[in-house]
């Protein structure tokens, strides 16, 4: 079994995080083309788009089991190949009955990669004996920014969605070829369990991830709506809230490992959750666009290192093996992205969107207290 040098593994893990962010971000500018091509209305498109998240949720536990049996390298190679094979289909399928299954497969490939790359990251970070998880997660965000930019630039030349998808697929394939030899090939011991329901401290870690991802999902799905409909910001400017959040999160994750090394995990999570909650409250309560954008950025700063710390803790806890704990935490966290926007919608319908977002801020503050307690004890039962 060939194991690359530690430095090569670290670089290859960064590439592993970059690839799914890079590829899935390409889908965002392709959505309007798919809507026109399939003739879907808004409600129909919303239902079809659920296939993307459903595929990811279904694939994550399976990916953990496959990684235990086959090793991370094989699963990440297969996931990447499936992503790149499906992406051009999303630019071609003319019918909603085909778009839904294509998104289901695409989401499954992204979800499998997401789960397995975190299993690899836990091993690489443990062997390095220093914080690295925030930096790894930063490369997912960087991939998202680069992917969306590249696809948008290609589409801007008038070459169409298929060319944009193929260009992104070729770049991602090249990156995969360069990195794959340093992806981990090791497997779980023979006879080890390959699937288990989360239990003990793993459930608590998953809850913290759920809340943090819920806040991220709130920014993705509700930020622009809030700024336009509640604060009266012009629709053309409403997207700047998510831009401020995303850029702040990416920048903070790039320096996050150093922050965690100096402050420790518990203070980092507690401070992050507090800053994030205050930032979201400011974004909701501030009367103008400028102060609201500051609030969005503070939320990005606050949320940036919570999930990376939780994944590190999931790899260190002793209640479940890492190859079982990481898929469980990933699935619980991703459920926050999917369920969160719907929950916010229900609260907004019953009360107001401002109330719903302030409730998210309060929940984030409470999750930070739980996360800090987990970080202080490092391992648990």
From TrEMBL:
Subcellular location: Membrane
Keywords: Membrane, Transmembrane, Transmembrane helix
InterPro entries for the chain: MFS, MFS_trans_sf, MFS_Transporter
Transmembrane domains' residue ranges: 12-31, 43-68, 75-93, 99-124, 136-156, 162-180, 192-215, 235-256, 268-287, 293-313, 325-347, 353-372
Membrane topology designation: Multi-pass membrane protein
Coarse class of the protein's main subcellular location: membrane
Matches recorded under PANTHER family: BYPASS OF STOP CODON PROTEIN 6, INNER MEMBRANE PROTEIN YBJJ
UniProt name for this protein: MFS transporter
Organism: Luteimonas rhizosphaericola
